């Protein structure tokens, strides 16, 4: 496999995908066209508008972007594609659409055969075992929470440390993930913004400028640094 | 109906349910025993421990608390009870358990017949039309997102305004609710901590010290103040 699962598409104050540019040139080496999966629709943006945003970045590295929604036969489009990018947004909407159109496992098999894949945020969630560690609001009801399992754990993108100045009693992210662990025997990678998971063949590492917080059933959470194997 | 749906059980720096004490004395007037529904299990706490926390408050207003989990026949226990309280925690866990044990509509019918109900946080989410505006992590997969519809809208508890100082690209609460509105034709009440919804008969008002933010399909969000009818 040859994949990147990133916490976010955009760093605070940065441009779309800019901080990943050098990595993406490596990921998609030799490829001149990718399929963009726009189903997560952040803020309800249209598929066309979302695809145009992806295109505005990829043209800077000479890669053409086609939206998956543009194809009549989407399974065939996935099978024929050379590489993929799934953008962020609402994970429930993304997973529901992929299951309803029976595309989740078509995509999985193509990525497992070695075609490059980039996921950001919701697009990274679907690279995990299931979507049960998303931060998103359940605005639609998917037929299943199962995902592609491109890595043998779950991802919590946009991982956020507790803000000691916040006078608020909603659960912290850490509390939420610990609640997940009471119900699931699955490791969770708390991926701070600026970090990404890189899988090349069977080697899975965490990359980026921040430490990464690991949650495992039965253990206290701990931190690993850039380049650590997962 | 005679219900309170509160944003939170506990104000920042306050004691459990303390800020609602006078309201709860009114809500449960003439009642000496209630059933507590502990299924949301915040932080994975046991049903017994969670029920003990509820009890520690209710004994200060001379009300006995029995955990629903203590009963062999839970449907019968609900039918026989005089009043209810559902505590906060994980809404997915709460809704899954209520549907799996076929208790959601038994509870609904009893509350609709006039028995007092208090919900906090997840316990308020289940008073709405469905749980699609919860903030919680989908740690388990419920058989349905449908809830009791004690009020003709959805609730977003712990409603939180954007923090302009946060250098983070995760979605704001407002963005999440607007995404919900792209997929659902249902009003959402953004209930800040300190506020609650009060329904007496057919009159539904918002109460508490904060303004309340209302999200409706096709309209810009707007604010209403204490005592406004919903």
UniProtKB/TrEMBL annotation, chains A, B:
Enzyme Commission number: 3.4.13.21
Any single GO BP term = proteolysis
Q: What family does this belong to?
A: Belongs to the peptidase S51 family.
What Gene Ontology terms describe what this protein does at the molecular function level?
dipeptidase activity; serine-type peptidase activity
Quote the protein name from its UniProt record. Peptidase E
Taxonomy, superkingdom: Bacteria
Q: Which residues form the signal peptide?
A: none
Q: Which keywords annotate this record?
A: Dipeptidase, Hydrolase, Protease, Serine protease
Enumerate the Gene3D superfamilies for this protein: 3.40.50.880
Q: Which gene encodes it?
A: pepE_2
């Amino acid at each position: 496999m040859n994949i990147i699962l990133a916490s976010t598409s955009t760093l605070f104050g940065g441009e779309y995908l800019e901080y990943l540019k050098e990595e993406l040139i490596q990921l998609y080496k030799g490829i001149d066209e990718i399929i963009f999966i726009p189903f997560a629709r952040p803020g309800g943006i249209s598929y066309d508008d979302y695809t145009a945003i992806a295109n505005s970045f990829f043209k800077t590295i000479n890669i053409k972007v086609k939206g998956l929604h543009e194809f009549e036969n989407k399974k065939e489009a996935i099978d024929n594609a050379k590489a993929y990018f799934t953008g962020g947004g609402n994970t429930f909407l993304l997973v529901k659409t992929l299951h309803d159109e029976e595309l989740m496992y078509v995509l999985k098999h193509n990525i497992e055969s070695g075609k490059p894949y980039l996921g950001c945020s919701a697009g990274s969630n679907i690279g995990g075992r299931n979507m049960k560690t998303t931060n998103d609001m359940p605005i639609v009801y998917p037929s299943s929470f199962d995902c592609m399992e491109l890595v043998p754990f779950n991802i919590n993108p946009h991982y956020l440390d507790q803000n000691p100045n916040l006078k608020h009693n909603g659960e912290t992210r850490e509390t939420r993930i610990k609640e997940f662990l009471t119900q699931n025997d699955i490791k969770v990678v708390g991926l701070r913004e600026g970090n990404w998971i890189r899988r090349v063949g069977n080697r899975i590492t965490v990359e980026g400028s921040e430490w990464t917080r690991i949650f495992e059933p039965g253990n206290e959470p701990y931190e690993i640094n850039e380049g650590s194997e997962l």
